[in-house]
Design brief:
The structure is a single chain. This protein is mainly beta and 506 residues long. 5% of the residues lie in helices and 35% in strands. The chain has 2 helices and 36 strands. Strands 1-30-31-32-33 form a 5-stranded mixed beta sheet, with no helix packed on it. It has a 5-stranded mixed beta sheet with strand order 11-12-13-14-18, with no helix packed on it. A 5-stranded mixed beta sheet has the order 15-16-17-19-24, with no helix packed on it. It is globular. 53% of the residues are buried.
């Protein structure tokens, strides 16, 4: 009997050790880049080649709108992706709207959609045809997303298929402009649990171009960038006192905390970078790239505060990515391609006590300089002079989030060049010019680096320090969303189509 128990215990330890040593595969991707924001997936069997025309390795494809910038996510058998309403899926909704689609993961069939009208008046508040640009974040039965009107939504993952759960019950009015008759809610519509309009108090931000965010979940708390930016003159910040980073109760939508870094007047263009989470010296940190070109580390809140008083996030460290930038009045340097302040638009990535973040001149209005910075995140205070491990020059501008994998860093710049960089020295092993602008981020999956550019092409490389181009594939539209992998499937969204790609495809 004792021998039998010993054998069983030994076998159990062996199985547990095996599970701990083998990378997890075939899992959902409910959040863009997960919490560390590292663009690396543990999925396997991702094909190195596919062809929409012949159907090779295409599981399914579905039409989107005419412009789609949202990176898709996959959770609980569903795929979520933002787009516009140029190809209406419901005849009740006509004209320009923001849309979040909920699709069946198996075949891409539409399950339900969130549809919201555009902000009226100034086109710089909500850029025409921009749609919902933010990436959704899913946890359990809830979907969290920032809509095109700078509103945070908490949605029921099943939409209206299981009834209007509330407490929010006015979905019909949310789908039309103020003053218009509400739309009758159907099973094709989203079920809104709660919503928070960041344009009003207590956030009171000022949107610019398009709201872009990927909400970070930690326990009962949502961390996100507000999207505060310049006005239509590109020389004035209308809401200089608005926060750039906020914390919201995921259950109710109540504002819990905000930063107090007074970034407002130093925002170069807009606050488009989403935060990441890292564990440093046994402490959780929220790492945030500001619209002023400064990377911050904040102490994460321990739990959902009971008191109603708005809290201020405690800053642990900060790193100025561009010490040569003008210190005052950054908007006086707009359109200056030689001298300007810098901003951060891609997400910072946390990996093994380091932060990797791209910063530089604004793609539309700033200087033609950009860098990938590797920062020691274990220090405190102003670490600009002491925290830099290395800095790597990028071409002109960069809005991408890096991928850190096997002692390599992969990143693409806006000039269309993909870089493979040594994680220790900060020196490039190779670069590759894709021949078209890149706004998206690289994904490493199954030993491959995958990236799309704005000239409609997908490039697939070996994720190694010796350059090897595995494929160059032309699709039907520009690619601004980042690729993701989930459940042995690669997802790539062009402006017009979402593709599900896998080796098991018929």
């Amino acid at each position: 009997m004792k021998s039998s128990i010993t054998i069983r215990n030994t076998f159990a330890v062996f199985i547990f050790s095996l599970c701990m040593s083998v990378p997890l595969i075939a899992k959902d991707q409910p959040q863009w880049g997960q919490r560390s924001r590292n663009m690396v997936s543990s999925e396997i069997n991702i094909p190195a080649i596919f062809n929409p025309e012949t159907g090779l390795n295409i599981k399914w494809s579905v039409p989107l709108g005419s412009q789609s910038y949202s990176t898709p996510v996959v959770a609980n058998g569903k795929v979520f992706v933002g787009t516009n309403n140029e190809k209406p899926r419901d005849p009740r909704h006509k004209g320009d709207h923001g849309v979040l689609l909920c699709l069946d993961e198996t075949e891409g069939a539409l399950l339900w959609q969130l549809v919201t009208p555009k902000l009226q008046g100034d086109i710089y508040l909500d850029w025409p045809k921009g749609g919902i640009c933010s990436s959704a974040t899913v946890e359990g039965e809830r979907v969290y997303v920032v809509g095109n009107r700078a509103e945070i939504f908490c949605l029921d993952i099943n939409g209206q298929h299981d009834g209007n759960d509330g407490p929010f019950k006015d979905e019909g009015a949310m789908m039309v402009l103020p003053g218009n008759d509400p739309v009758e809610v159907s099973s094709l519509d989203a079920d809104i649990i709660w919503t928070l309009d960041m344009k009003t108090e207590p956030v009171n931000m000022y949107p610019h171009d398009s709201a872009h965010s990927s909400i970070l979940i930690d326990g009962d708390l949502l961390y996100l960038n507000t999207g505060n930016g310049v006005d239509n003159t590109h020389r004035k910040i209308r809401r200089p006192n608005a926060p750039s980073l906020i914390v919201v109760d995921k259950n109710t939508g109540r504002l819990i905390a905000k930063d107090d870094e007074r970034i407002g007047n130093r925002i170069v263009h807009c606050t488009w970078a989403s935060p990441c989470l890292g564990h440093i010296n046994n402490q959780k940190q929220i790492i945030f790239g500001g619209g002023n070109g400064v990377c911050y580390g904040f102490k994460a809140l321990d739990s959902l505060p009971v008191e109603k008083t708005l809290q201020i996030l405690e800053r642990l460290w900060y790193f100025n990515c561009d010490t040569n930038a003008p210190k005052d009045d950054p908007h006086n340097y707009m359109r200056n391609r030689e001298v300007s302040a810098s901003n951060i638009t891609g997400m910072p990535v946390f990996h093994e006590n380091r932060v990797y973040v791209a910063a530089g001149g604004d793609i539309w209005w700033g200087k033609r300089e950009a860098w990938l910075k590797c920062i020691d995140a274990t220090q405190t205070g102003d670490v600009t002079g002491t925290g830099l491990i290395w800095s790597y020059d990028l071409n002109k501008h960069c809005s991408s989030t890096p991928s850190v994998y096997n002692d390599l860093v992969f990143i693409a710049d806006c000039d269309g060049v993909v870089h493979c960089i040594d994680i220790q020295s900060g020196k490039a092993y190779w670069t590759h010019d894709t021949g078209g602008e890149i706004w998206a981020s690289t994904l490493v999956a199954d030993g491959k680096v995958i990236i799309g550019n704005r000239r409609k092409k997908v490039f697939i490389f070996d994720a190694k320090k010796q350059k090897k181009v595995l494929a160059e594939i032309k699709l039907d539209g520009p690619i601004d969303a980042s690729p993701i992998a989930a459940n042995n499937t690669l997802y790539i969204a062009t402006h017009r189509t979402l593709y599900a790609i896998g080796t098991s495809a018929k």
